[in-house]
Specification:
Elements: H1 2-31, H2 41-46, E1 53-55, H3 66-74, E2 88-93, E3 99-105, E4 111-118, E5 123-131
Length: about 130
């Protein structure tokens, strides 16, 4: 009987230690989670070319930015109050079609959040604030 209780206690102890270890790793991973990146002037200027052409928002041929928009909202860079249908203000693509610049509306008039997308890597490079 004593051996049975000893095995049961050892399994319970092993379970508790494993649970604490898993919780520790989850917390550590969430703290090290990378959020949206603010672009530097150098990276932003490298994505601009002379022939930036406006793309129609209605045809939807631009990069899918919605997962990145969710990250911006989670980081409280964008407001949750703005409807998604009114969020995209304008979309521009450079002449070599390597980069897209997506202007997102904010609550303030003439203030935008610009997302720069690298079309070759198929991912957002980052964001920056734009005041007109």
């Amino acid at each position: 009987m004593a051996m049975h209780h000893y095995l049961r206690l050892s399994f319970i102890l092993l379970f508790v230690i494993t649970s604490f270890f898993c919780v520790y790793l989850i917390i550590k991973k969430r703290r090290n989670r990378k959020g949206p990146k603010l672009l530097s002037k150098e990276k932003y200027s490298s994505s601009i070319s002379e022939g930036m052409a406006e793309i129609s928002v209605s045809n939807g041929t631009f990069f899918n930015i919605w997962p990145y928009v969710s990250e911006l909202k989670a980081a409280k860079i964008l407001s949750n109050k703005i409807k998604e249908s009114e969020l995209i203000y304008k979309v521009y693509r450079n002449s070599t079609e390597d980069f897209e610049h997506v202007l997102l509306a904010t609550e303030k008039e003439n203030h935008f959040v610009k997302i720069v997308v690298d079309r070759n890597k198929k991912k957002p490079m980052g964001y920056l604030f734009l005041d007109l």
